[in-house]
Amino acid sequence: LCGNGERLKLYEQRLLFLKRCKSYNIFPMFILNNSSLYNEDILFPRGVPQFIENSIKMARTTSLNQHIRKLYLDIAHHKSEIVKIKQQLRNCTSAHQYTSIQSVFGSNNIKVKISEKRRLKDKFSWLVNKQRPENVNVDTELVVEPPATRVTPIRVTLSHQEEALLALGPNFALPPRVDDKLITDVKVEMAAAAYALRYRAHMEGIQGCPSQAQHLKGLGAPITRSYVHPPPTENMDVEDKLKRLNSLVLHHYSNVKIRSNITNEQATGLKTLVQRRDELHISVSDKGGEFVVMEKQTQRELTINHITTTGGVYKFITPTHRYKGVIRPVIEPTKVTFRRQIKNLRDSIQNRCNSLWNRICERRDFSNEVNKYFLSHGSQLPTMYILLKTHKFDISDIQNTEDIFLRCKVRPIVSCCGSPSEKLAWLCTYILGGLLDHVPSHLKNIFQHLDH
């Protein structure tokens, strides 16, 4: 069992190594040595012809692909052998003995994997330096100076260190700090993943048609249940895989060494931005792919300006209260007044959506189970925010505050996740989405527009 496990881990790491070589367009030495031209200086004193170089490269690529396919077959073979051996051990040993064997098997596989991964990582770095010397070593720290257009400051002053950090772009992420809090979060996420995987394995083992809830979940419906029974834990294969996965992940996090992926200059910029978090508002542009930095007060004024100048879309609702049976406006609203108004408005919309769905279910004679799936409960009002269209104005044209409102174009985004109408909106989208193909003026994307 341990021998098959070791070979499986070796083959898996070699497969990843060859696939990485293929993605970087480099070849291992065993392919280069067996496909090179001997005495090429004597055969071609004026240089190897281009068509021969292309043929050699094609042969190397074919050889690399065949080695990758062979490793896939070897991995599948060893996996099937391990499953057979485990089945035999489960039939001829006790549960305690089988668990002990599994523990030794898992720890031995982890050691083999870490050792082989380290060896192939060094080998890959050597191949990159040898075949593509213009590229830096993938294991060394790489700091690339991004273009200055990745940051758009609007009427704010940023230091050189802050611009250097923000210029990394919205897709950049700092490495996490490995501490007790992270380990606890990982354990919680692993427990949630194990819960879901047990359910999936249990449902796959049940013969017959899926239930209504499973069918709707498979379609992506945002339905929830107030209570779900815990999944069964009798499947030993699933439990063994979950234990190995949990052991592998926790072992990785307990032994990983985190290195900083930013320079000292960028680290200084990060500290100053954290100190200015009460002053600055940092968001992402609409389509430019860069950060937009402005003061928080400016962002609020820009949002209010968009709401007030866009006619026929937004409506301001004055806070009110009931006094002696008469609804009157609140002269001096407070935070409590606004929270109460938001709660009342949410309950009103939720009741209207539920009443509409109840009438539809009665008219169409839907079952009580389907009725419960699309009823809203514990919802919240949608959230609206704006994104600046940095590609539609020039930052150099903004000289004062008035230019911000005149020249800056914004795109409003309304997030309806968890809103009272989310479930019914999904249902309407699913029903009407299939009819859009019959609308001649409907364009799915820009490529369809270009084709026509």
Topology:
Elements: H1 2-23, H2 29-34, H3 40-43, H4 50-92, H5 95-131, E1 151-153, H6 160-166, H7 180-205, H8 212-218, H9 236-255, H10 264-275, E2 280-284, E3 291-295, H11 296-309, E4 320-323, E5 326-329, H12 335-364, H13 368-373, E6 383-388, H14 401-407, E7 410-415, H15 422-433, H16 446-451
Helix pairs in contact: 1-4, 1-5, 5-9, 6-10, 7-9
Q: Would you kindly provide a brief summary of this structure?
A:
The chain is mainly α. The protein has helices spanning 2-23, 29-34, 40-43, 50-92, 95-131, 160-166, 180-205, 212-218, 236-255, 264-275, 296-309, 335-364, 368-373, 401-407, 422-433, 446-451, and strands at residues 151-153, 280-284, 291-295, 320-323, 326-329, 383-388, 410-415.
